[in-house]
Amino acid sequence: MHINPDIIFIEEIRQQTGTSFSACMQCGSCSVVCKLSPEENPFPRKEMIWSAWGLSDKLMGDPDIWLCHQCGDCSDTCPRGVRPADVLAALRSQTYQKLSGPSFLYKLVSKPALLPLAILIPVVLILAILFLAGTTTIPEGPVDYSNFFPHFHLNMFFSILLLLVVIGMIPGLRKFTRQMRQNMPGTNKMTGLRSFFSVLPDILLHRNFNKCETRKSARIAHLLVFSGFIILLLVTLVAIVNVIFFEYPMSHYHPAKMAGNIASLMLLAGLSMMILHRLRKKDRIASNYTDWSFLISLLLLTITGSLTQTARFRNWDTAYFIYFIHLILVWMVIIYLPYTKFGHVVFRLSAMIYSRRIGRG
């Protein structure tokens, strides 16, 4: 077999993980201990050797790196301390970089020095919309965010931005699907739609976390964050309908408003658990800049959202400033969605569907 190693790829993985691939002796302990790994062609043993060889194209179409939940069982078992779980996490990060375009946006969220520029982009966009709406000054009187950022402009531009992000993800997702078929061909055991409904309970209930010995508690944190975002998404849709057809803003006792407040508490609890876990297990779980920036930005987004609501009801002088900061964080999450761990929602789902469809795992 002819091998054309990607030296730059090898170095990037090494820098992200601190892993010395030469230390891996291919004993297979990592694959044996992993309860999520299929019996045929198990991971992460093959991913370790492919990474050492620099087979970036093969790894970018490898669904197995997305079946991993980074519980750390393989890293704990490794007799040479190579930490395969961190390597798989770095491979997922490389997928965001190589398959999500334009690539310069990935650089903005992956390099600390570029953080000011990453923040500046949503700031400029929001200021431009405020200028077009003619609301460049702070309104007087009781706090009413629609006087500062008209709902029509907010909903329209937010929808356009989200649509552009989704459209931008399609080419990378199509390439990922093609590479999975090339690198891990198999006979379809079921249709794509049936495969989707087959993996849906695993995703909604986070069942696979129960199979991880060292991170079973992570299931609770991930469930809280996942469910909280789903609820907030539904609340947002209800809010848009209310803006168009009914009364807005909604009262504190509106069912959607109450559900949104519960979802915010779920997010705060789940994100806090994730952050504390990484702090306690920092010697076992490699956390880089993108990991921390993602978690902290989501935490700040949740906190500013709650403060925005409180500021409106209590007519704080700083209400519009808090709202502006909240909008920046919202737009940052949307703009950089394909380049952060939010992207794993799409890639992991695609990998799970394909694996289930060909009868893998």
Characterise the protein shown here.
- With 361 residues, the protein is mainly alpha-helical.
- The protein is built from 17 helices and no strands.
- α9 packs across α16 (319-335) and α14 packs antiparallel against α15 (289-314).
- The chain is 68% helix and 0% strand.
- The protein has helices at 7-17, 29-33, 45-53, 56-60, 64-67, 73-77, 84-99, 103-110, 115-133, 145-148, 151-183, 192-205, 218-245, 255-280, 289-314, 319-335, 344-357.
- The two termini are 27 Å apart.
- It folds into two domains: 7-99, Alpha-helical ferredoxin (Fumarate Reductase Iron-sulfur Protein, Chain B, domain 2), CATH 1.10.1060; 104-357, no CATH class.
How would the blueprint of this fold be written?
Elements: H1 7-17, H2 29-33, H3 45-53, H4 56-60, H5 64-67, H6 73-77, H7 84-99, H8 103-110, H9 115-133, H10 145-148, H11 151-183, H12 192-205, H13 218-245, H14 255-280, H15 289-314, H16 319-335, H17 344-357
Helix pairs in contact: 1-7, 9-16, 11-17, 12-17, 13-14, 14-15, 15-16
